[in-house]
């Protein structure tokens, strides 16, 4: 077998050798003349950007005794209303704010009026160490619009001005409807005409313990109310009632002094059926119903964020009114929510004279975005661009300034055009061109093709939302909100307890199995094989049988069921918009879905068997534990699926409560241990996966993009879960990332003759008991060696540079991207379309350039 000769082996620092092989820098001595920065600075920086001497991110020095000290700035396009509740997210230094703080630390002022406005602060996400409090907060403030036309860019200042929390004062109209028994209900009928309903406010009035307070201040108060549509009069017999119809998590949001309130609804057919204390908690498969209406008093108007052909006009219903969220099918056919399906609806309910104000809130006209800048004393303002507060996404990294690529106005115009074109398709129910290939399917209008593993790069993003964050595009936020709604409608993966909480791994783990702990089911984000544990095989079918025999199935049933959930390998297509809406808008529905996805991946990638017979699921962490135990140091089957799942779980951790953090942290630590033990002793390569279509399945392979996605997740874990909490695990993750990165800048993984990092390469025989090839590869292990990855490793190289201080990673990036030897210029040439992979490197280089 002819071998391709590489360099001497490299043993990562985790194995006890010198922490990082500084000798590797010498290999790039010839590149030292590269002008890494547009400003012409050298590339031999040896310390991480934004780090102090102790390795801790330094915070700006503020005079905290001087109320009104400017710490941030937010910008927005002026809304149509003259005064409004401004909302914006802002990253903050450690110790600035915690949810239980007695005082609100920040306030908002306009440049034209230095008087601080009433302000509310809410936690978006938290530092790894709970004692450090929030790392990103939402600022809510009552402000006036300057004397400018709607749509004009305006700015407000954020000041450090601690003040007491106030109490929310509701308008009399909203207070009355909240207190009135049964004032706001969801109502539906089954195929026999039996009525079902859910009172969306009853649990708030009774202080039910399942109600969660989401926001709580003097300007906005929001509750998550778990509800279910149950029969108003249960009936037995052949035309009897089901225990329930759909479940709903209703996010009820009220506003100080406003004659409107918001309902964000997450509707699902995904109860897990495991609560014996309530009669209605049963799993259902095909759930047929004739309509889903919102019933409320007369005198209120219902505004929809996005309508579709089954959104109906209000009509009188006795002394109440009903507004169809899903209107009945005209020919009498039933609607269908198949097993574990789900959808969302965002609506605003307003008195007639408050419709314009409610619409401004619903359309995100009141949403502002933090921006970079400096205070009058020269201190850098808190923002995504300040290295000391760069806490964007679970990776917690600095964002780039895009002024050299485009303008804010151009980005906003592009998003506005996309929103208008695609929302029109949803409203009219049409769809025949990519990416909306399907027309309306009842309550659903799914995005993309029906195959859950659709090929292509759209929404495969390590760094979503960069353009929206920099431009402050409200239209961009509306666009991704719409897209995420459409993707959710093709995700039949809902699984909830009777309290509306995502089903947890710990709730179903059997710890006393004869072959060790096990789950009684196999999950890869959706069930694999036998799922009898939850009782789906025993779900009642008499209503579905009637619908079939009577010919009442909807015409959209089969096309809807053809839409597969976005699979684990492409999970980011669903979760990236959730992250963007969370970090840029503190969106409650998005945070809720992130939590659900995190819990699903926890049950997918768990450290246990499946069933009590010693079977190990292929998606599980236990499968990797077993193989690393048998064959350490030759690579591990960690690729895009694990990367996207851990990335989502890290987001759930950043935004989650103490219970989730306590449950997830040991699991994350075990993931880090398994990756460290599996990482190649020879090269530092992490990913080694047997792929049948690559090299005829003879070799286990490393695909560059899969490894990049996996290490992106590891960096998210390091900064979100373990930083300043468990330095041993944090350092272990850093070693894995840097060791992996070194493998990508060496022959034969990286070959200048081919122009960069090979996308696919064989790293060992498919039999993992045989040591890996190290740097000496068989000729036929080079399948795809001429395909080069210029984009996805940019995030890995950025992390490795910042962790090691080795400028080789920046130099190799410059060499890979082009011939100008100017990394900042090459990243700008790479352009906007590549920001989902290049943004962090560009942000780092810009920060270094400004320092130099």
Task: Write structural notes for this entry.
The protein has 852 residues and is an alpha+beta fold. It has a domain at 67-554. It is 29% helix and 20% strand. It is built from 21 helices and 32 strands. The protein has a six-stranded antiparallel sheet, with no helix packed on it. Strand 11 (212-216) and strand 12 (220-228) form a beta hairpin. Helix 11 crosses helix 12 (588-604) and helix 20 runs antiparallel to helix 21. It is globular. Residues 1-66 have low confidence and may be disordered.
Which helices and strands occur, and which strands form pairs?
Elements: E1 3-4, H1 23-26, E2 69-77, E3 83-91, E4 103-110, E5 113-117, E6 119-126, E7 134-144, E8 153-164, H2 172-179, E9 185-189, E10 195-199, H3 202-205, E11 212-216, E12 220-228, E13 230-231, E14 247-255, E15 260-268, E16 287-289, E17 292-297, E18 300-304, E19 315-317, E20 320-326, E21 335-337, E22 342-351, H4 355-362, E23 369-370, H5 408-428, H6 466-471, H7 474-488, H8 505-508, E24 518-519, H9 542-549, H10 557-562, H11 572-585, H12 588-604, E25 609-610, H13 621-630, H14 640-655, H15 658-678, E26 689-690, E27 699-703, H16 704-722, H17 727-744, E28 750-751, E29 756-758, E30 760-765, E31 777-778, E32 788-789, H18 793-804, H19 808-817, H20 823-830, H21 835-851
Parallel strand pairs: 24-25
Antiparallel strand pairs: 1-31, 2-8, 2-23, 3-7, 4-5, 4-8, 6-7, 9-10, 9-17, 10-13, 11-12, 12-14, 14-15, 15-22, 16-21, 17-20, 18-22, 19-20, 26-27, 27-30, 28-29, 29-32
């Amino acid at each position: 077998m002819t071998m391709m000769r590489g360099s001497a082996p490299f043993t990562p620092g985790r194995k006890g050798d010198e922490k990082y092989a500084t000798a590797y820098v010498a290999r790039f001595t010839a590149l030292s003349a590269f002008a890494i920065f547009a400003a012409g600075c050298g590339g031999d920086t040896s310390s991480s950007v934004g780090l102090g001497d102790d390795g801790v991110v330094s915070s700006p020095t503020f005079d905290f005794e001087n109320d009104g000290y400017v710490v941030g700035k937010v910008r927005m396009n002026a809304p149509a209303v003259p005064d409004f509740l401004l909302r914006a997210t802002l990253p903050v230094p450690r110790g600035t704010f915690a949810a239980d703080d007695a005082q609100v630390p920040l306030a908002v002022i306009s440049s034209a009026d230095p008087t601080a406005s009433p302000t509310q602060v809410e936690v978006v996400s938290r530092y790894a160490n709970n004692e450090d409090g929030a790392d990103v907060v939402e600022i809510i403030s009552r402000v006036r619009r300057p004397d400018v036309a709607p749509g004009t860019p305006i700015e407000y200042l954020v000041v450090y001005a601690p003040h007491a929390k106030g109490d929310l004062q509701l308008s009399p109209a909203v207070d009355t409807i909240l207190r009135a028994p049964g004032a706001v209900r969801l109502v539906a009928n089954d195929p026999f005409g039996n009525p079902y309903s859910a009172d969306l406010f009853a649990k708030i009035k009774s202080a039910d313990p399942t109600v969660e307070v989401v926001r709580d201040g003097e300007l906005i108060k929001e509750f998550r109310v778990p509800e279910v549509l149950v029969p108003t009069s249960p009936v037995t017999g052949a035309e009897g009632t089901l225990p329930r119809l759909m479940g709903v998590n209703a996010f009820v949001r009220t506003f100080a002094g406003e004659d409107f309130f918001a309902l964000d609804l997450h509707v699902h057919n995904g109860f897990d059926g495991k609560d014996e204390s309530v009669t209605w908690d049963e799993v259902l498969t095909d759930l047929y119903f004739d309509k889903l209406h919102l019933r409320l008093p007369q005198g209120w108007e219902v505004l929809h964020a996005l309508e579709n052909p089954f959104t109906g006009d209000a009509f009188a219903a006795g002394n109440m009114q009903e507004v169809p969220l899903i209107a009945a099918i005209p020919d009498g056919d039933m609607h269908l929510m198949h097993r574990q399906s789900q959808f969302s609806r965002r609506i605003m309910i307003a008195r007639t004279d408050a419709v314009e104000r409610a619409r401004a809130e619903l359309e995100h006209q009141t949403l502002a975005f933090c921006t970079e800048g400096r205070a009058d004393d020269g201190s850098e303002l808190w923002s995504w661009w300040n290295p000391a507060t760069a806490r964007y996404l679970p990776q917690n990294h600095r964002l780039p300034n895009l002024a050299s690529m485009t303008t804010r106005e151009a980005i906003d115009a592009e998003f506005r055009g996309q929103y208008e074109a695609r929302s029109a398709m949803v409203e009219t129910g049409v769809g025949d061109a990519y990416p909306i290939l399907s027309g309306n399917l009842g309550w659903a209008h799914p995005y993309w093709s029906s195959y859950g593993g659709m090929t292509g790069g759209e929404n495969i993003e390590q760094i979503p939302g960069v353009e929206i964050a920099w431009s402050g595009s409200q239209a961009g936020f509306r666009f991704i909100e719409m897209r995420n709604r459409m993707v959710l409608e093709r995700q039949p993966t809902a699984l909830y307890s009777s309290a509306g909480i995502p089903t947890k791994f710990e709730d179903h783990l059997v710890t006393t199995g004869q072959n060790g702990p096990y789950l009684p089911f196999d999950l890869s984000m959706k069930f694999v094989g036998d799922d009898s544990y939850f009782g789906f095989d025993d779900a009642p079918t008499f209503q579905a049988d009637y619908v079939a025999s009577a010919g009442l199935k909807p015409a959209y049933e089969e096309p809807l069921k053809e839409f597969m959930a976005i699979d684990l390998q492409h999970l980011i297509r669903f979760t990236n918009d959730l992250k963007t809406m969370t970090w840029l808008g503190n969106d409650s529905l998005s945070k809720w879905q992130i939590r659900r996805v995190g819990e699903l991946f926890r049950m997918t990638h768990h450290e246990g068997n499946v069933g009590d017979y010693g079977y190990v699921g292929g998606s599980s962490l236990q499968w990797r534990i077993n193989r690393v135990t048998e064959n350490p140091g030759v690579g591990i089957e960690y690729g895009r699926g694990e990367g996207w799942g851990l990335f989502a779980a890290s987001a759930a951790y950043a935004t989650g409560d103490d219970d989730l953090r306590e449950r997830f942290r040991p699991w994350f630590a075990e993931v880090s241990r398994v990756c460290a033990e599996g990482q190649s002793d020879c090269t530092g390569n992490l990913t080694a996966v047997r792929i049948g279509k690559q090299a005829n399945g003879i070799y286990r392979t490393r695909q560059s993009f899969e490894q990049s996605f996996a290490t992106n997740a590891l960096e998210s874990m390091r900064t979100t879960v373990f930083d300043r909490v468990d330095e041993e695990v944090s350092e272990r993750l850093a070693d894995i990332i840097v060791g992996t990165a070194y493998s990508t800048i060496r022959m034969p993984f990286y070959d200048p003759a081919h122009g960069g990092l090979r996308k696919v390469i064989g790293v060992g025989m498919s039999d993992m008991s045989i040591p890996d090839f190290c740097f000496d590869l068989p000729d036929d292990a080079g399948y795809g060696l001429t395909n080069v990855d210029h984009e996805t490793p940019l995030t890995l190289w950025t992390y490795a540079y910042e962790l090691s201080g080795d400028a080789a990673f920046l130099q190799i990036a410059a060499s890979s991207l082009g011939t100008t030897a100017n990394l900042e210029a090459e990243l700008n040439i790479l352009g906007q379309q590549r920001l989902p992979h290049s943004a962090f490197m560009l942000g780092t280089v810009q920060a270094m350039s400004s320092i130099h």
